């Protein structure tokens, strides 16, 4: 039995888009995947496999198309799982086709110094927009390993409806009304994951790593609370949960980039933290928020600063716990 009478189409043939399509399909929610690459579409529809997941075979009931018009027809909800840098352009190109649809954002990052929900206001009503985030690797989702995420929306009815669509015994969905906090946590954790990779690559030890994670959470809190986000979000799945995951696992592209960093950024197209860096610095400057760790990571990548010296200086601040 289908959970909804109208198809839910997943827009994006990337790893996370396919994982979410798998989740929805597992719940008997009709879903179709859109991808630009014709070869990728042909392979998926013929063999039900993807380059992102080795030998994993997807259910034949999940179909893929390279036609955006086909993907947008007969649908009520779109799941946008394209990279942040491509999201605004894609939405702008299809704005006339999606004005009456619900849109779920899954990309984690900033664009033009703002969160995506702000950038997309001219095209999508806030009451039709939601954000899905939290500690989750696509490779584990398709293995049905227990995963907990958050769906944030200003529209409580929408978030509950989406919670019902996505929730299963292995994919647990919580709801939130803190769109700003959830988006900022999702964007910033990628940047901090790069810095965490730097430290582990240099084998600085567990003491330093624990200090780094604590100070990163504190710094993340400064900008989340400044921009109107909630402390409960920081202490939840999309906050500390996602921060721990991405800062400790080599499965994270951002962590792996930092761990193996050799000064080259030209091939790091899938490292969202790199795209987020200048955007978060722009936001911090605009709202006068001190972010020494983010600045240190930026200096290491783009100014060739030594990791040890830069990260040491970034944490040379008096923590609020330390009062004279």
TrEMBL record:
Question: What's one GO MF term for it?
Answer: glycerol-3-phosphate dehydrogenase (NAD+) activity
Reported EC number(s) for this entry are: 1.1.1.8
What region holds the Glycerol-3-phosphate dehydrogenase NAD-dependent N-terminal domain? Answer: 13-157
Q: Name one GO biological process term.
A: carbohydrate metabolic process
An example GO CC term for this entry is: cytosol
The broad enzyme category this protein falls into is: oxidoreductase
Enzyme active site: 189 (proton acceptor)
Q: Name one Pfam family in it.
A: NAD_Gly3P_dh_C
Q: Does the keyword Protein biosynthesis apply?
A: no
Tell me the residue numbers annotated for binding NAD(+): 138, 253
> So what does this thing catalyse?
sn-glycerol 3-phosphate + NAD(+) = dihydroxyacetone phosphate + NADH + H(+)
**Domain named Glycerol-3-phosphate dehydrogenase NAD-dependent C-terminal: residues:** 178-311
Where in the sequence is the signal peptide annotated?
A: 1-21
- The residues the record assigns to binding substrate are 108, 253-254
Q: Which family does it belong to?
A: Belongs to the NAD-dependent glycerol-3-phosphate dehydrogenase family.
Name the PANTHER family on file: GLYCEROL-3-PHOSPHATE DEHYDROGENASE (PTHR11728), GLYCEROL-3-PHOSPHATE DEHYDROGENASE [NAD(+)] 2, CHLOROPLASTIC (PTHR11728:SF1)
Name assigned to this protein: Glycerol-3-phosphate dehydrogenase [NAD(+)]
The organism encoding this protein is Junco hyemalis
Q: What is the lineage of its organism?
A: Eukaryota, Metazoa, Chordata, Craniata, Vertebrata
């Amino acid at each position: 039995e289908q959970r909804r009478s109208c198809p839910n189409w997943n827009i994006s043939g990337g790893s996370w888009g396919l994982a979410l399509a798998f989740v929805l399909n597992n719940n008997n929610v009709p879903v179709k995947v859109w991808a630009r690459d014709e070869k990728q579409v042909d392979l998926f529809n013929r063999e039900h496999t993807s380059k992102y997941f080795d030998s994993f075979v997807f259910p034949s009931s999940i179909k893929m198309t390279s036609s955006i018009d086909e993907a947008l027809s007969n649908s009520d909800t779109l799941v946008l799982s394209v990279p942040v840098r491509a999201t605004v352009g894609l939405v702008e190109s299809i704005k006339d086709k999606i004005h009456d649809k619900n849109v779920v954002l899954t990309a984690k990052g900033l664009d033009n110094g703002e969160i995506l929900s702000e950038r997309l206001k001219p095209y999508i009503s806030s009451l039709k927009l939601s954000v899905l985030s939290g500690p989750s690797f696509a490779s584990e989702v398709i293995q049905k390993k227990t995963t907990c995420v958050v769906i944030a929306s200003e529209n409580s009815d929408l978030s509950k409806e989406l919670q019902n669509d996505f929730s299963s015994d292995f994919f647990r969905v919580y709801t939130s009304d803190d769109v700003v906090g959830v988006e900022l946590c999702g964007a910033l954790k990628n940047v901090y994951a790069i810095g965490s990779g730097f430290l582990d690559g240099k084998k600085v030890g567990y003491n330093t790593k624990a200090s780094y994670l604590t100070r990163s959470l504190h710094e993340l809190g400064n900008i989340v609370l400044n921009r109107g986000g909630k402390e409960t979000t920081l202490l939840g799945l999309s906050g500390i949960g996602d921060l721990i995951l991405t800062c400790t696992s080599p499965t994270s592209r951002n962590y792996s980039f930092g761990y193996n960093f050799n000064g080259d950024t030209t091939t790091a197209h899938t490292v969202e933290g790199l795209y987020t860096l200048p955007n978060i610095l722009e936001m911090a400057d605009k709202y006068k928020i001190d972010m020494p760790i983010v600045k240190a990571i930026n200096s290491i990548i783009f100014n060739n600063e030594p990791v040890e010296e830069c990260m040491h200086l970034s944490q040379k601040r008096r923590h609020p716990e330390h009062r004279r």
